[in-house]
Design brief:
Its EC number is 1.14.11.9. Keywords: Oxidoreductase. This is Flavanone 3-dioxygenase protein. The chain is of the alpha+beta class. Strands 1-2-3-10-5-8 form a six-stranded antiparallel sheet. The longest helix has 26 residues. About 35% of the residues are buried. The structure holds 2-oxoglutaric acid (AKG) and fe (ii) ion (FE2). 2-oxoglutaric acid (AKG) binds next to strand 3, strand 5, strand 9 and strand 10.
């Protein structure tokens, strides 16, 4: 992925969040399948969890029919976003190949999955965390894991992301122009627990706003994600239920999906995995 492309994408993202509220709010929607969805915690029309965050979610699948619905301002958002989405998918595919290899899954199976991932769901989540006068009273995003296989994240030079490791919150040192890869719930399920999705959260500060772009990738949204039959045996039984996007949406409708609660609900054997 060219650094220049990451920079340009960060710059249109920043540009979008600098637009007037009237301009941004044109893209508000409660429809989870909409090609574009803007939300802000400065208005209650957000995801249900109160966070100090503005977001713009751009659905990238299928790219050609989604991108004409994306914001027309900043003027180059669509063009840059489209180029970034394509490159992001390419990088995702390269990493998934390595993931398959690491799981000992054969080339044939890899090729089959590859075809599915080519048309897999892809969501670009642009986040803006404004400076907050009382940062200790809120979060940019509460602890959660992402629902897809992998999330490719780029961020500016302001600290904010923390990942949980051995029951401690570790602050990730931002490295601008680089891509950070997080494991999502679907990969934990598919790998039958060999990979673990990462619990993460975002804190805010009182002096600087922060921008990040999370790209979530998975299988096509109508497909079922299940533990690979090649990773189930006597030693390791099937540890997770099959799941699909519908199940995720239903879960979200009745509870919030923080703290890996969705994944927890998919476990067949409730031991400490
Ligand atoms: O801003 C970040 O570093 C993380 C954002 C995030 O976790 C998300 O959009 O799911
Ligand atoms: Fe996340």
């Amino acid at each position: 992925m060219p650094r220049e492309l990451i920079r340009r994408t960060m710059s249109v993202t920043k540009g979008f969040f600098e637009l007037s509220f009237d301009e941004r709010s044109k893209y508000m929607s409660n429809d989870i399948r909409s090609p574009v969805r803007y939300g802000t915690s400065f208005n209650q029309n957000n995801d249900g969890v109160f966070s100090w965050r503005d977001f713009l979610k751009l659905n990238c699948q299928p790219l050609n029919s989604c991108f004409p619905h994306w914001p027309s301002s900043p003027i180059d958002l669509r063009e840059v976003g489209m180029e970034y989405a394509k490159e992001n998918k390419r990088v995702f595919m390269v990493i998934m190949e390595a993931v398959f290899e690491s799981l000992g899954l054969g080339l044939g199976l890899g090729l089959e999955m590859k075809r599915e991932f080519e048309e897999g769901s892809q969501m670009m989540v642009m986040n803006c965390f404004p400076a907050c006068p009382e940062p200790e009273l809120t979060m940019g995003m509460p602890a959660h894991s992402d629902y897809g296989f992998l999330t490719l994240l780029v961020q500016d030079d302001v600290e904010g992301l923390q990942v949980q490791f051995e029951d401690e919150w570790i602050t990730v040192q931002p490295l601008p122009d680089s891509i950070l890869v997080n494991v999502g719930d679907h990969l934990e399920i598919f790998s039958n627990g060999k990979y673990k999705s990462v619990l993460h959260r975002v804190f805010v500060n009182s002096s600087k706003s922060r921008i990040s772009i999370a790209s979530l990738h998975s299988l096509p949204s109508e497909k079922v994600v299940s533990p690979s039959p090649f990773l189930i045996n006597e030693e390791t039984p099937k540890l997770y239920m099959d799941t699909d996007f519908e199940a995720f949406l239903n879960f979200m409708a009745i509870t919030d999906s923080t703290n890996k609660s969705f994944l927890q609900s998919r476990k067949l054997i409730h031991q400490n995995l």
